[in-house]
């Protein structure tokens, strides 16, 4: 539902609507009323003009058409007209759709939605479905900026429960909305009443979520286990139980529930994601995350988005962010990159990413650069961009910006001539030569690109693991083994797929004693930068 790009205020739109009404041009009047409702959904003058237009048109709903490209203002205007025509359920359906499109707008903050007698004209199951539609538009819990715009729906829920005090689906859906809006006590009360009215799998799930939000973990688990007993085939509940147990440090019990789900369906996405995340949290072996990335790549049609991989990689060296910059490489001779290449890198370079495959995907923006430009970007990183993040990095930590630029230049090399077989490819040869060069930021950036290739392309893993193992072996026995660059390389090894156990143990020894040092300080600094940027 794309919005109009015009910059007129609601009052200006209404003035144009009244002029069009006076001339009998109802179509243009409707367009301006719809635009005014987008600018100010609760403005009384907008609703008065809408009522005048409705009277002039004889209730012609086609003035506000629906379709795949429906304008959100038209959807909202039609909702109000449907309510005025005695069809409030249809009107609420459209308001809920508008809320799904733009949940921060107060589409429902109008008298007819919060009227105490409205639920008497609604089927309680229809009301429950509308509340569930609103819940789908709001995170759990909803951020504060969404609570006021969504509050009218909670008033609708209260009024509906007054009229239908024992309707289980309505009570459960209302509980889900109350939970999102921060009223967990009310959420527990309503969900409890719903289960008492009729024990159902969905009702127990809603009760379990309400208890969990209220911090009543044992009761939450009991409710979710009752849900499993009522419907043993709903494997999403198994994953919810596992997640709840894991949140309280009970990883073995959590994995037990995941294994039960996987025994029923080895490809069930929620259980697979949860299993790999929990196994990584238990033993720190990155191959669990690599297996999860493989699953995501091989199952692009998952029913919904999962954040397990990003959650595990967030804030972890090389898995989700660069490490602190060490000594800069000497600036080699050679031409500077083209202005177009520099701009492209400035748009992409960032000190953090969701996970290595996400970094690889983002770097595709450098795929059209030629090899000379990519190498020039590595040797002569451009200045930090004139963005909020770029200004902070360039002003407070230029070395970190240089580090970011070199990392992304090497990620760009991964997209160079991807039609060439890996073993004989230009990208493998160039990155391998850089990785084997003098130990420094360029070598680390190249190694990270190679590690990223191993995440994305399973057929490169043996090759990349051998390259990383060779580099770690040299560091572990050389004079740099106690330096920050050695620790950074050790973290790279920890991020490497299919690395042999001996090299992983060497990396662990290099990292020992370094936890909580400059890397943690860097992450705190990056977090502050993200908030400001």
Automatic annotation (TrEMBL):
**Residue spans crossing the bilayer:** none
Q: Which sections of the protein are TPR repeats?
A: 203-234
Instruction: State the InterPro entries in the record.
Output: CellSynth/LPSAsmb/PSIAsmb (IPR051012), TPR-like_helical_dom_sf (IPR011990), TPR_rpt (IPR019734)
Write down the Pfam families for this protein, in alphabetical order: TPR_19 (PF14559)
Q: Which UniProt keywords apply?
A: Repeat, TPR repeat
Start and end residues of each stretch annotated as Disordered: 320-340
Q: What is this protein called?
A: Tetratricopeptide repeat-containing protein
Q: Please name the source species.
A: Micromonospora tulbaghiae
